[in-house]
Amino acid sequence: MTTHTKADEPMAADAPAAADTKTVALVTGANKGLGRETVRRLSEQGWRVFLTARDHERGTRAADALGVEFVQLDVTSDDSVAAAAETVAMRAGRLDVLVNNAGIGGPLMDPADMGADLLRVLYEANVFGPVRVTRAFLRLLRESEHPRIVMVSSALASLTYACDPARPESGFLSLDYASSKAALNMIVSQYARALPGFKVNAADPGNPATDMNHHTGMDTVADAAEAVIRLATLDREGPTGGFFDRNGPVPW
Fold it and tell me: Minimal CA–CA distance to 151: which of 196, 186, 193?
C-alpha cells in the first residue's frame, strides 16, 4: 500500500521509498565468514542488503566496510528478531530475499556422550533460529513479487552421504550439528510446500575455512558462497524445496 503525504510533510528519513526497485535482501549472522561474503556478493549486484549480527559493534563495523545497512538481530531472541523485522519494515517496506545463515557448531564428542542440554543449544540457533526469523519476516516477504528464502545447511545433513562409507561425511560424527541441519532440511521441504510462489531451498556451502571450524575447512568462503548466491538469485523458473551445493543437487 502506498503512503501519501502532503507536500509540506516529508516522509521520515527511515521510511521506505515507494519507488525503490532494488532487490532487498537480509542475511543473518553476517559480520564475518560465509555471511559476510554473501552480503558482499549480493551488494555487488546492486541489491539493497541488510547485514545482521548479534554484536552491534562488530556488525556495524562489517556493514560500514561493505557499504550496506546494519540491523542488530539475535536469532535466539524473539524480541530481537521482532525488532529487526520492524526496522526492515520501516526502512524498506518489503523483503525479497532472506538468507538464514546464522548458526553455531558444537563440541567434537562421541554421540553417546552428548546429553540433551548440549543438543538443545545447537537446536536453538540452527533450527529454532531460522524458524523464528522466517516467521517474523514472512509478512515482508509476502510484499515481494518474487520471494526467496535460503537456508544454509550442510552436507553432514545428508542421510544418503552419512550412509555411504565412501563419503567423508560418513566418518564424521556430530550428533548435534549434523542432526540440527538435517532438521533444517525438513523445515525447508515443509516451507516450500506451504508457501506457493516462494522459492525456498537449502544450500550446502561445503567446508569453508571459518571461525566455526577454527579455519580448518578446505574451501574458501568465496567458493562456499556460490551455492548460497545461486539460490538467492533464482529466477521465477528456479527450483523450490531442494538441497544444493555449488555443483548442483545434493541427495537428502
Answer: 186
8-state DSSP, 55: -
**In this structure, are residues 207 and 246 in contact, taking their beta carbons and an 8 Å threshold?**
no
- 103 neighbors 54 (Cβ within 8 angstroms): no
Strand order in the sheet with 199-203: 69-72, 48-53, 24-27, 97-100, 148-152, 199-203, 243-245, 248-249
**22 three-state secondary structure:** coil
Cα separations in angstroms, 20 against 12, 94, 239: 15, 10, 27
What is the band of 219 on the pLDDT scale with cuts at 50, 70, 90? confident
Nearest residue to 25 (alpha-carbon basis) of 150, 180, 128: 150
* 177 included as an active-site residue: yes
The DSSP letter of residue 124 is I
Catalytic residue (choose from 123, 161, 177, 191): 177
Are the C-beta atoms of residues 200 and 240 closer than 8 Å to each other? yes
* Per-residue pLDDT tens digits for 71-103: 999 999 999 999 999 999 999 999 999 999 999
Measuring CA to CA, which residue among 222, 105, 118 is closest to residue 156? 105
Rounded to whole angstroms, the Cα distance separating 123 from 127 reads 5
For residue 4, how many other CB atoms are within 10 A of its CB? Answer: 6
Residue in this structure with the C-alpha cell 538481530, named with its chain if needed: 73
